[in-house]
Amino acid sequence: MSRLGREPVFTYTSVAIGESAYAVAAAGRGPPVLLLHGFPQDHSCWRRIAPALTGDRAVVACDLKGVGGSRAPRGGPLGEGYTKREIAAELVDVMVQLGHERFAVVGHDRGARAAYRMALDHPDRVERLCVLNVVPTVEQFDRLDADSALEYWPFLLLAQPPPFAERLIAASAEHVVRHLLASWPAAADAIEPAAVERYVRAFTPATIAAWCADYRAAFHLDRPLDDEDRAAGRTIASPLLVHWGASEDAMSDGPLPVWRRWASDVSGGPLPSGHFLPEEASDALGASLGDFLPR
What we know:
Layout: E1 11-17, E2 20-27, E3 32-36, H1 50-53, E4 58-62, H2 84-97, E5 103-108, H3 110-121, E6 126-132, H4 137-143, H5 153-157, H6 164-170, H7 173-183, H8 193-202, H9 205-232, E7 240-245, H10 256-259, E8 266-271, H11 277-280, H12 282-292
Parallel strand pairs: 3-4, 3-5, 5-6, 6-7, 7-8
Antiparallel strand pairs: 1-2, 2-4
Helix pairs in contact: 2-3, 4-9, 6-9, 7-8
């Protein structure tokens, strides 16, 4: 994995978990924190956040399963192999192999879905949790309506049966990435050209297949898993920090009421941003994480 922008000096390695190999960037010393990116990016989305955390923390930035520098088998027809439960369990093993038995997790977008599943399934491992720009998957599908369906098109398009979704996205992969990175931020030029080019290069057929498997699993498998937890009253035990882009949600309390049904210790609020908080609101997010995460 190549460096970009303000990244600290990372040590790059690959951690094998079963048939998968996770690309990991590690830097700093102290209480560990795992950073998980979202769609359609890779670990470098944290380049403006990591420098503020590495002074007194051990930062691990990981490419998600099958994405970027990570390698993994293709998912099953319903996204088997890419449920957030499976990915969360594999990421726990990644951290254990790196020597971190207990750690904080910060996840954006798809990475946040793996992060909150990790907190639900492995409460003994997750010390603190921060999620950015998400509500639980079952709640997201419950909220889909005529006003929001077009905005959340990846949830439905990428979940289409294979290989239809993969071929459709791959036919214009560069346009898809550039469209997302220009239309989801608060300002079209919020993400610098060098970062855009990196994300375009990383959006390979293998990465596209992994993203489709991720969304497919969300529709078919993660949604009922969340529903089971909700029905059983299972909640997140660790302190939970929630942030979202102010331009994405007109409600002042945003997703906080939803998350307060899933956890008892919830804080957070909107940041001056669109969807890509780690890059659009890096100073505000970095300051919030600095206060929230263990030192």
